[in-house]
Amino acid sequence: MVMQIIRSIPDMQKTMLALRAQPDCRIGFVPTMGCLHEGHLSLIRQVRRLGCLPVVSLFVNPIQFGPREDFSRYPRPFDHDCRLCEQEGAAYLFAPSAEEMYPSGASVFVEETKLSGGLCGAARPGHFRGVTTVVTKLFQIVQPHVAAFGRKDAQQARIIAHLTACLNMPVEIEICPIVREPDGLAMSSRNRYLTPVERAQSVGLVEALREAAGLYRSGETGAAALIRAMEERLRQQGLLIPEYVAVVDYASLQPVETVGPSTLCALAVKVGSTRLIDNLLINAAGETVL
Ligand code: AMP
């Protein structure tokens, strides 16, 4: 099936409503900002695995970037992204312009007020308001049965799951594993900003999380001890001033003192001018999942 590229909201909505009317058709939505890599492609594969028709969006959402962030330099390799989506079997690609999504006069925003304050939300005021607004709009346009998000952005995924529950949106949220480079660095569109020296330093994020995982597996349950070990490992890699190194409850995203099942160790570090995030989940069964 040839992938169809749609840029207008009414066209997309009409097409998706027609699909939804077909018996047995389940729409599996993968929202992205483009510059696609294996992490994004794993989400497309996951919705296919669930028996859904994959629909991808490419939209660099201006309202989730702060004034000093990388909105204008965010990479937009459109033809490359189209090729990858088509290769993965995406049926539709929705790629609206910023004017299409936010015509002048747009004055309604969706804000989550409990999970959004800490971690990345503390350092990026307004970021999650931008995310929850665009995801709500995209869900209205695409009307998906299932939408897939990566655990790479763990706070975002939790906020979106909570958003859909609180606003009674009829969509299932699928949270997918983190896809990593061979040395463990979490894949990210922003990795391409890194100089060779910074790229070598960046492995410090996953090394810090491995350190925390090892400590936990050897019986350490003090969050403070895990945080100290992660900070120390970051320091050894020359990553001196992390934005945050946190140990939180995976559901509430509130800091915990004791580490156990459903705990998230999360960190954000500026490597040069590039902000990177990563996390380790201790799942409900008590297993460490990078
Ligand atoms: P982005 O284009 O950065 O907004 O990401 C779009 C989706 O891909 C989000 O749900 C991300 O969490 C997910 N994603 C990005 N990087 C990865 C990765 N390395 N592994 C799994 N999912 C990812």
Structural account:
With 290 residues, the chain is of the alpha/beta class. The protein has two domains: 4-176, HUPs (Rossmann fold), CATH 3.40.50.620; 189-282, Pantoate-beta-alanine ligase, C-terminal domain (Pantoate--beta-alanine Ligase, Chain: A,domain 2, 2-Layer Sandwich). Helix content is 38%, strand content 19%. It is built from nine helices and ten strands. The chain has helices spanning 9-21, 38-49, 78-87, 98-101, 119-123, 127-142, 154-166, 196-217, 223-236, and strands at 4-6, 27-32, 53-58, 92-94, 146-150, 172-176, 244-249, 263-271, 274-282, 288-289. It has a six-stranded parallel sheet with strand order 1-4-3-2-5-6, with helices on both faces. A four-stranded antiparallel sheet has the order 7-8-9-10, with helices on one face. A hairpin with a 2-residue loop joins β8 (263-271) and β9 (274-282). α8 (196-217) packs antiparallel against α9 (223-236). The protein is globular and about 55 Å long. The protein binds adenosine monophosphate.
Describe the structure using short key phrases:
single chain, 290 residues, alpha/beta, Rossmann fold, Pantoate--beta-alanine Ligase, Chain: A,domain 2, 2 domains, six-stranded parallel beta sheet, four-stranded antiparallel beta sheet, 10 strands, binds adenosine monophosphate
